[in-house]
Specification:
alpha+beta; about 130 residues; globular; 6 helices; about 10% strand
Length: about 130
Amino acid sequence: MMSLIAAAALLVVAEGPVMVVSAPEAEYDIGYVELVTGEDRAAIKAIENCEKLPASDPARQINHAVALARVGEFDAAREKFDAAARNADRFELETTSGAWVDSKVLARRGLAMLDGGEFRGYEALAVR
C-alpha cells in the first residue's frame, strides 16, 4: 500500500498551469525533482523506471500525466489522468504546499486542464 505522503501533482491555475509536487523525501522516485525543474522528459523516464510503485498507483499516474501533458503528449496524458480518476485506490496526497488533496480530485483537475488547453504553454516553452 502506498504511503500517505505520496508524490502527486497538484494542478493549480494561476496565469496558466502551475505544477507543484510533493516533497522529494518519498521513498520512491516518480519524477518529483524533474517536474519541479521543468525536465519533463527526464520525469517521464524516472516515472516509467520506478520499480517501487505499480504503474496503477494514482500518484504515479498523475505525475506521469503531468509530465506527458507538458511535453505535448496530450492523448497519453489523458489516459493517465483518466486512469487515476477511475482508479479503485484513492488517497489523500500531500503536496509541496502542504495541502492534502484527494487523488481523484487531482486527476479530474488534470483532465479539466487538458480540456482547457492549459498545458499548451508548457509544450511551447519546451521547444524554445
